[in-house]
Amino acid sequence: MERRSALKNMGMAFGYAVATPTLLSLLQSCKDKPAYAEWVPAYLDKGQGQALATTLDVILPKTDTPSATEVNVHGFIDAYLDQVMPLDQREFTMMKMGKFYDKALEGSGKTELAELEAADIEPVLATYLRKRTDEEEKAHFEAVMGYMQAVMQGGEATLDEEVARYTFANELRDLATWAYKSSEKVGEEVLAYLPIPGEYIPCGDLQELTGGKAWSE
Q1: Cβ count within 10 A of residue 47
Q2: Are 51 and 77 in contact (CB under 8 A)?
Q3: How many Å is the maximal CA-CA distance in the chain?
């Protein structure tokens, strides 16, 4: 969709679409780190880090493939916030994150982010990741654009809390999926991996070629 492409090209969807070499380097540096229970974030505080890691494992849970935290997607996103994201975008992202987790805390009756469990976060994600109509997406896009333009012009910027939560949830899912598929473990052990490209077969059956697996990027 053109609106979605515009958001990514402006760097609003975490900016990952325009910084691939840097992000791949970050992915390599995030290998083989401890599970998130012992994880100390570089940028986020401990509660934010715990909530983020829990959310990522709701988005990408452990099945017959690793969970998001097993391949350190949480560490990658924290490092990206710390080392790559421009200050204005980082502030915007943290604002949206805050609104999202405020909703999770409200629904759970808890007061601390570190106390949030998957069961507290699942309904919030379900609300904000549900498919939107074109009219709803247009309205969200225009609201975010208006906010960003106000910020760039030095004016007073406000963003509807529901729009902020929707935007955060969708951007987080997109970045988590990208980081997950780009991790070494998933790329080599879960997806179809061919370190030395061989014959190009443009119209082959995926089941016959890779056993039904998508190709590693």
Answers
A1: 15
A2: no
A3: 58
What gap in Å lies between CA 178 and CA 131, rounded to an integer?
20
Q: Which residues contact 143 (CB under 8 A, 6 or more apart)?
A: 159, 160, 163
Residue among 66, 71, 67 nearest 54 (CA): 67
The DSSP bridge partners found for residue 184 are none
Q: Which of 170, 163, 168 is nearest to 146 (CA)?
A: 163
Per-residue pLDDT tens, the chain, 217 aa: give them.
Answer: 444 444 444 444 454 444 455 655 665 555 555 556 678 899 999 999 999 999 999 999 998 888 889 888 898 899 889 988 888 889 889 999 999 999 999 999 999 999 999 999 999 999 999 988 999 989 998 998 888 888 888 778 889 999 999 999 999 999 898 888 877 665 455 444 345 555 555 555 555 544 444 444 5
Q: Which two tokens stand for residue 112?
A: 């601390």
d(CA 151, CA 57): 33
pTM for the whole structure:
0.74
Helix or strand or coil: residue 72?
Answer: coil
3-state secondary structure of 163: helix
